[in-house]
UniProtKB/TrEMBL annotation:
InterPro entries reported for this sequence: Aldolase_TIM (IPR013785), FAD-bd (IPR002938), FAD/NAD-bd_sf (IPR036188), OxRdtase_FMN_N (IPR001155), YqjM-like (IPR044152)
Record-linked Gene3D superfamilies: 3.30.9.20, Aldolase class I, FAD/NAD(P)-binding domain
Stretches assigned to the FAD-binding domain: 2-317
Superkingdom of this protein's organism: Bacteria
Pfam families registered for this protein in UniProt: FAD_binding_3 (PF01494), Oxidored_FMN (PF00724)
Residues covered by the NADH:flavin oxidoreductase/NADH oxidase N-terminal domain: 393-725
CDD domains in the record: OYE_YqiM_FMN (cd02932)
Official protein name in the record: Bifunctional salicylyl-CoA 5-hydroxylase/oxidoreductase
Length: 783
């Protein structure tokens, strides 16, 4: 077998090593345009888990790498005169040039041929090769040469960064958030060998411009950074090596393979430096390709296995990097946070670390987080004990005169089980059991304001006396048997009305028994859906009056709170989104115009709803479609409703148009809640694939939402919140007297179960290399 590898970075060299070990007789040659010891940057960083992978696949190179590494266990966050150190992380740093020399030496030992200062721009010279690996980096010329085939997407991020070095010693992975007269600067720094550390400086484009960095050369830029971070550098100089300011390109390629050519490392996909995974991804690409070559019967089959099997892991890492880089791009959102909360946000920014695992590795730090959160609650008017450790989920919250005992919310979820809009015994059990189960706040499903406002024939309504009586029965049960508050969500289906029950075909039109539908514009949801009538002024008046009448009925039922549904492509959302509103009158065009009718409805409801009771609005913070609502639009929408008197923004996304392309994942809508809360400065509730109390605590402690709505977890476990209270020892949780023996038992069991689980996790967690190194260098005790 003959293999040509274009690019002598970590991906190309490690692939050569692994393939040569696997096939000693193979003719493997690496071609690198630079000199053997010529490299961009200073240090690279790996986690202990990554090093475990290296040890498994090539012990000799692993041993040489770890002999050269600097080890640390802590992350240090410097912010507004404070330092928070978080241990238990397990990272290792190494000189990038030394890493390359180690891999080069190992490759030569195995018989790989290395050519340096050879610039390859035409792969046809390898026409006799069985396999051509393209590992020529983030600016890959071959990816661009075959751009129509590989179809890369390049997202050039907004922040400017420069990669420098220093002689400053560091004993932790260090983040420094520095306020300047021009704006915030960030330093990502770590030691990679004795006397040398990597420093990546980052700032937003406006601060970059104001600081006069435009046009400065490397030396001048280094001097400016030395001025800004001089207090920390303590006289140590900054080093440069092609350290020009640039914008980071996030690269995703639709295809990784062309004929017998395959992309590896940054040539195929990049991950932002803020999670330190670039070199890890490159070398793990090499591992994945080598494993595919070993198992597959042909090279073509191996390349298919590599691309299909490796893509998910790469995309997961890229998603974490995306979330992390967005946090850094918008660090100004959090600049007025308490430093402890800010540091917690740094640690949990990419979702890889959560409240519970951080508590295991750094219990003292998380205790500070809990104390800081309790102080915020006390400052808002609650008499809470800041010395008592209570997780954020079980801290109280207030909206106007309504207080909730905890931050766990049962999300509004359509049950499609009403009879002519009348809630049944199913609804009584559904809402009543979740209230008894401990949720602080219960939302009704979207309750329709008229018969023709329904989504399906099974939707609940509140337009007649029978419905009002049924809802009053439910509200009375909730108030009489739990500490939960209950919110009435009112909505109008608009163009998504007259459709089948969810389990019969969600959003599909009824075959028979339908009704006329209306919308902002006469655009059907599906091509075969009913074409809605464009709502005129008379129709708007009728809709507004039906909302007000339903709200008045809701007040008579005793609901504690009212929510207006302006999301998911329903009637009011159809006015807000430019994808569903093509009007040319005063209700179309600009966002201000498109908001006019939804705000009119909200203002009418605010007048009809008692002033001491809160109101919220549910919005779709993005349409997940080109030309639709964006996160920045969501901030403007939230501000408009806040000015009209909204107390809480329920931040959801999508479901506006059928061809939307949402990016799913854990807590996938939370970043939009984060943006709305911290830019519009309004309380938010987040929702969307939040499945655990751990995730809820993470979101709340990081300041990404004020309430956390959980849908599917509540569907299968009415006592989700009670169980979480037991798990976290929230002894003030309400329980009906009939259930107290069960509550007492689960609280006692949970103490033991939590201790057992934590002990197992601690025992199962291998010692970090920093710990092992410390043990190895510890003097032996005297006999």
């Amino acid at each position: 077998m003959k293999v040509a590898i274009i690019g002598g970075g970590p991906a190309g060299l490690y692939a050569a090593i692994l393939l040569k070990k696997q096939r000693p007789g193979a003719d493997i040659t690496v071609y690198e345009r630079n000199r053997a010891d010529d490299t961009f940057g200073f240090g690279v960083v790996f986690s202990d888990a990554t090093l475990d992978n290296f040890e498994k696949h090539d012990p000799p190179s692993y041993r040489r790498i770890t002999q050269e590494f600097a080890y640390w266990d802590d992350i240090a966050v410097h912010f507004r005169g404070t330092v928070h150190r978080v241990g238990g992380n397990g990272f290792c740093g190494c000189s990038r040039s030394k890493l390359l020399l180690i891999l080069q030496e190992r490759a030569r030992e195995l018989g790989v041929v290395l050519h340096f200062e050879v610039d390859i721009d035409d792969e046809t010279r390898f026409a006799d090769a069985d396999l051509v690996m393209i590992a020529d980096g983030i600016n890959s010329r071959f990816r661009e040469k075959y751009v129509d085939h590989f179809q890369p997407e390049v997202d050039l991020r907004s922040n400017k960064f420069a990669w420098m070095g220093s002689t400053k010693p560091l004993d932790a992975f260090t983040f420094i958030f520095q306020e300047t007269e021009w704006g915030p600067f960030i330093a990502h720094a770590y030691q990679y060998e004795a006397g040398h550390s990597t420093w990546i400086f980052e700032t937003d484009p406006e601060t970059f411009e104001r600081a006069g960095l435009t046009g400065l050369d490397e030396t001048q830029s280094a001097a400016r950074m030395a001025e800004i971070f001089g207090w920390f550098l303590d006289g140590h100089k900054l080093l440069i090596n092609r350290s020009m300011w640039r914008n980071f390109p996030m690269i995703r390629s639709k295809r990784w393979v062309k004929d017998n050519m395959v992309l590896l490392g940054d040539a195929k996909a990049s991950a932002h430096f803020s999670i330190g995974s670039g070199t890890k991804l490159a070398m793990e690409d090499a591992i994945a390709l080598a494993e595919a070559m070993e198992k597959a019967p042909t090279i073509k089959a191996a390349l298919d296995v590599y691309e299909n099997g490796r893509r998910e892991e790469v995309e997961k890492t890229q998603h974490a990097a995306d979330v992390s880089l967005v946090w850094f791009e918008h660090v100004d959102r959090f600049w007025d946070f308490d430093p402890v909360q800010f540091a917690f946000g740094v640690m949990t920014r990419s979702k890889a670390i959560t409240y519970d695992n951080l508590k295991l590795r750094a219990p003292d730090f998380v205790a500070e987080v809990e104390k800081s959160f309790a102080k915020q609650v006390r400052d808002s008017g609650f008499d809470v004990d800041t010395s008592k450790q209570v997780v954020p989920l079980f801290q109280p919250f207030r909206l106007r005169k309504m207080e909730v005992a905890n931050r766990a919310v049962m999300s509004p979820m359509c049950m499609y089980s009403a009879k002519e809009g009348v809630p049944t015994d199913f609804h009584l059990v559904h809402y009543g059991s979740r209230a008894i189960g401990g949720a602080g706040l219960i939302f009704t499903e979207m309750t329709c304001v008229s018969r023709d406002a329904r989504i399906t024939p099974g939707c609940a309504g509140l337009w007649n006396d029978e419905q009002e009586a049924a809802w009053r029965r439910i509200v009375d049960f909730v108030h009489g048997n739990s500490a939960a508050r209950i919110c009435l969500q009112l909505g109008h289906a608009g163009r998504k009305g007259a459709t089948r029950l969810m389990w019969d075909g969600m959003d599909r039109p009824l075959d028979a028994g339908g009704w006329d539908v209306v919308s902002a514009s006469p655009l059907p949801y599906f091509p075969d859906s009913q074409v809605p009538r464009e709502l005129d002024r008379a129709g708007m008046n009728a809709v507004r009056d039906s909302f007000v009448a339903a709200a008045e009925r809701g007040e008579r039922c005793g609901f504690d709170m009212l929510e207006l549904h302006c999301a998911h492509g329903y009637l009011l959302a159809s006015f807000i989104s430019p994808l569903t509103n093509t009007r040319t009158d005063e209700y179309g065009g600009s966002l201000e115009n498109r908001l006019r009718f939804p705000l009119e409805i909200f203002e009418a409801l605010r007048l009809a709803w008692p002033p001491h009771k809160p109101m919220s609005v549910r919005i779709s913070a993005t349409d997940w479609a080109d030309g639709g609502i964006t996160g920045d639009d969501a901030v403007a929408i939230a501000r408009a409703f806040a000015e009209a008197g909204v107390d809480l923004v329920d931040v959801s996304t999508g479901q506006t148009v059928r061809d939307a392309q949402p990016i799913y994942g854990r807590m996938f809508q939370t970043p939009f809640s984060d943006q709305v809360r911290n830019e519009a400065r309004v309380a938010t509730m987040c929702v969307g694939n939040i499945t655990t109390a751990d995730q809820a605590n993470t979101i709340l402690a990081a300041g990404r939402a004020d309430l956390v709505a959980l849908g599917r977890p509540h569907l299968v476990d009415p006592f989700f919140t009670m169980k979480a209270a037991a798990w976290y020892g929230a002894t003030d949780a309400f329980c009906p007297p009939q259930y107290l023996p069960g509550m007492d038992q689960i609280f006692r069991n949970s103490v033991r179960d939590r201790q057992d689980l934590e002990e197992l996790r601690i025992k199962a967690k291998p010692k970090t290399r920093a710990e092992l190194k410390a043990e190895a260098t510890k003097p032996l005790a005297a006999e």
